[in-house]
Amino acid sequence: MIRTRSIAAAAVAASLTGLVLLPSQAQAATGSVHLYKIYYDSPGSDRGSNVSLNAEFVQIRNTTTRAVSLKGWTLVDASNHKYVFGTYTLASGKTVTVRTGKGTNTATNRYQGRAWYVWNNDKDTATLKTSTGIRVDTCSYNSTRVDYRMC
Known about the structure:
alpha+beta, five-stranded mixed sheet, four-stranded antiparallel sheet, 11 strands, globular
């Protein structure tokens, strides 16, 4: 009798543990599209060269199991400098880098086409929103000790 209760208790505990673990496993499997890295202080002096502007960037990563259309999605800073994605699909498991300066858009690099810096060298907040304005992710930094922030 005692042995039967112990086995039954262990079975109940195991099933409860399984129930507790299932949501987190499902959440991990679905992934997200999120801000990954902000390189806010490009190397060298901030003189506004296109090379320097493009060394300032934000990376967005897709950890879902499907490609995601970013058409109409926006990336904004605290001062409301806004980059709007045109027709663009971020493949599953891939990262896109949104650079501040000018360049030719590719699957891995998008260019804002700006003539001056967006991201403050000391503190700022990046916000990623869907085409309907739903906030997907934010990432803030407040430091001059490093040049980038992993989100």
